[in-house]
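Worked problem 6 (solution included).
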Amino acid sequence: MASEATKSVLFVCLGNICRSPIAEAVFRKLVTDKKIENKWFTDSGAVSDWNVGRSPDVRALDCLRNHGIETAHKARQVTKDDFLTFDYILCMDESNLRDLNRKGNQVKNCKAKIELLGSYDPQKQLIIEDPYYGNDSDFETVYQQCVRCCKAFLEQSHGGQE
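Solution. The predicted structure is:
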């Protein structure tokens, strides 16, 4: 059987310490559980440079841990190379989308398909709100949205193959 080409996805939010590391960790668990982690390269990044090198927000880590997921991600800013190397760049809200489209338009031969992660939500909640100024239940809401969206994205992009 010929090996399938690896696909890649970059999850993006404003600071890369709340929403995008949750989405990255959720997606990583999904592909690992399906035993297709060797077919995907997964990462996350920030539109801003505010938190570069920092671990995710402690509330994001607690939320993931409550669902049996660990992450060692360190925040990073999206680079020009990301637009050339990733198949998909999935972001959390319209502000992220505007920033990414603007940056992507400045990159010659931009390969990445830039979309809202919420566009895959079967419950049609397009925007994944930033929980930073919220409480634990806001992080849980983000987690649940990411689970729904990542499952649907994986199904569509992987053709449901096991």
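Discussion: Residues 23 and 98 are 19 Å apart (CA to CA).
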